TrEMBL record:
UniProt entry keywords in alphabetical sequence: Cell membrane, Hydrolase, Membrane, Protease, Transmembrane, Transmembrane helix
Lineage, top ranks: unclassified sequences, metagenomes, ecological metagenomes
Biological process annotations from GO: proteolysis
GO cellular component, one term: membrane
Coiled coil spans: none
Annotated organism of origin: freshwater metagenome
Alphabetical list of InterPro entries matching this protein: Peptidase_A8
Transmembrane segments: 21-39, 74-94, 100-121, 142-161
Protein known as: Unannotated protein
Length: 176
């Protein structure tokens, strides 16, 4: 069911959804970037800092791969795939007709951009940079805010798909 616009500013309901998507994405990216700058200055790569005993610790890791350090030798491929995912989200953003799907894609966008920023601009070289991870749980890879946003987007998308909530309006209803 399409969401209702509470007031009219001359914008379609689709404009509100893509604006929400980009706002969520920008917020996630900013939080991720800020916390990575903080982690680089404050978190040790050698000795973990316990927050909740050994359950939650902070430890600085430079990850050249993806989750679980998969693909450590193909960082450039992850950079290209991340760029393609961002382009895909941007393409579909103006077609979103559900507030929850706009949040899902905003979370994904912010998370992907957070890690993509590291891959493009961080050492060892442009487009081959290592992602800054700094949150550690037992028996789990060290991760960051961007990773959390991507996982939340995946979980929420499964919930929406299970509830059969479509991201797009029916074809004849897309110009309203």
């Amino acid at each position: 069911m399409p969401s209702k616009v509470p007031f009219n500013l001359g914008l379609t309901r689709f404009a509100f959804h893509w604006q929400r998507l980009y706002l969520v994405g920008a917020l996630i990216w900013a939080i991720d970037f800020t916390t990575k700058v903080w982690a680089l200055e404050s978190v040790s790569p050698v000795k973990p800092t316990p927050i909740i005993g050994s359950f939650l610790q902070l430890r600085l890791v430079f990850n050249p791969g993806a989750a679980f350090s998969v693909g450590t030798n193909v960082t450039f491929i992850f950079t290209i795939l991340s760029g393609a995912a961002v382009a895909g989200i941007a393409y579909y953003a103006i077609k979103i007709d559900n507030r929850w799907w706009s949040v899902v894609l905003g979370l994904a966008l912010g998370g992907i951009l957070g890690n993509l920023t590291d891959r493009i601009f961080r050492q060892p070289s442009p487009f081959n940079g290592h992602v800054i991870d700094w949150i550690e749980l037992p028996r789990w890879p060290v991760f960051n805010i961007a990773d959390m946003a991507i996982v939340c987007a995946a979980v929420l998308s499964v919930v929406l798909i299970t509830k059969e909530i479509p991201p797009f309006a029916p074809v004849g209803d897309q110009k309203k």
